[in-house]
Amino acid sequence: MILNIQKMVETAPALKIAIDGPAGAGKSTVARLAAKKLGYLYLDTGAMYRAATVLALRKGLSMEEPEEIAQAVAHAKIDLVHETGADGSPLLKVFLDGEDITFEIRSREVSLLVSPLSTIGPVRDSLVEQQRRLSEEGGVVLDGRDIGTVVLPNAEVKVFLTASAAERAKRRMKDFETRGENVSFDTVLKEIVERDKRDSTREIAPLKKAADAHEVVTDGMTVTEVVEKILEFCSHARAHERSRRELI
Ligand code: DC
C-alpha cells in the first residue's frame, strides 16, 4: 500500500503520542484535537483499516480470501488529507485510489467487516510499516488498538482511552443517526461488545493497554477535558525528557 499523508502544519521533531482503546471511546476526536493544539501530524490508523475494508468490498473479496486482500492492500493508494471544516474544526478526508471514501468508511457495513479484516497478518504488516515510517521523526499522534504495544512501543506518551460499553454505544448511535442509518441501541451495543471481544482476543496485536500507558475513562468527561489531560501528559513527558538529557 502506498500511503500518502498531507501534513496539516510543518512539525519539528518532537514527541510520539500513542492513543489506544476500544471502539467508540472517542479516540479520533481527541487525538485530532490534541494534534491540532500541538501542531503535530495526526494519523487515524483505524481509518487505514477501514479504507482497506472498502477496497476488499469493492473488489468483491470476502474475509475468507486473506491473501487476495493483502495483495490488493499492498497495491492500493490511500491518502489521508487534513482539512479544516467550515466551523474551523479539523477534518480528515480519506481517499482510495483518488476517490473520496470519507463517508463510506464509517458505514455500518464497513464497521462490521473491518474487525475481521484487521486480523489478517500481512494486511497489518503493510499498514504498520506505513505507520512507523510516518512517525519516524516524532511530532505525531496516532490512534488505534496496537499503537502503544506494537507500532510505537517507544512512544513518550501512551494513553489508553476507554468508556463503558453503554456510553460508547450511545456515541456510536448518534454517529449512525447523523448518517441516516437507523439502528437500535441494543444492536449497536451488541456489535460494540462483539467488536471489542474480537479486537482484544485476536492473535496478532490484540487491543491491550500497554504497561506504561495512562488509562483515561471518559464517561462523564467532555472532549475538552480529555484533550487537556492528554496535553498534561505531554508536558510531563517533555519535562522528563529534558531532565533525562541534562543528566547525560
Ligand atoms: O478505530 P476504528 O473503530 O476506526 O477501527 C476500526 C477497526 O480497525 C477496529 O475494529 C480494529 C481495527 N484496528 C486495528 O486492528 N488496529 C489499529 N491500530 C486500528 C484499528
Task: Provide the residue-averaged pLDDT.
Answer: 91
Strand content: 15-25%
Q: Termini distance?
A: 40 Å
Q: Are there runs of 5+ residues with pLDDT below 50, and where?
A: 9-13
Going by CATH, the architecture would be 3-Layer(aba) Sandwich
Strand order of the largest sheet: 3-7-2-8-9
**What is the CATH domain class?**
Alpha Beta
The number of helical segments is 9
What kind of sheet is the major sheet?
5 strands, parallel
- Shape verdict: globular
The tally of domains stands at 1
Going by CATH, the homologous superfamily would be P-loop containing nucleotide triphosphate hydrolases
Helical fraction: 40-55%
Computed CA radius of gyration, to the nearest angstrom: 18 Å
Bound molecules: 2'-deoxycytidine-5'-monophosphate
**Count of distinct strands:** 9
The CATH topology corresponds to: Rossmann fold
The oligomeric state is single chain
Describe the structure in your own words.
The protein is an alpha/beta fold and 248 residues long. The protein has one domain (2-247): 3-Layer(aba) Sandwich (Rossmann fold), CATH 3.40.50. 49% of the residues lie in helices and 19% in strands. It has nine helices and nine strands. The strands form two sheets. A five-stranded parallel β-sheet has the order 3-7-2-8-9, with helices on both faces. Strands 1-4-5-6 form a four-stranded mixed β-sheet. A hairpin with a 2-residue loop joins strand 5 (90-96) and strand 6 (99-100). Helix 2 (45-58) packs across helix 4 (108-117), helix 3 runs parallel beside helix 5 and helix 7 (165-178) packs across helix 8 (185-201). The chain is globular. The N and C termini lie far apart (40 Å). 39% of the residues are buried. Residues 9-13 have low confidence and may be disordered. 2'-deoxycytidine-5'-monophosphate binds next to helix 2, helix 4 and helix 8.
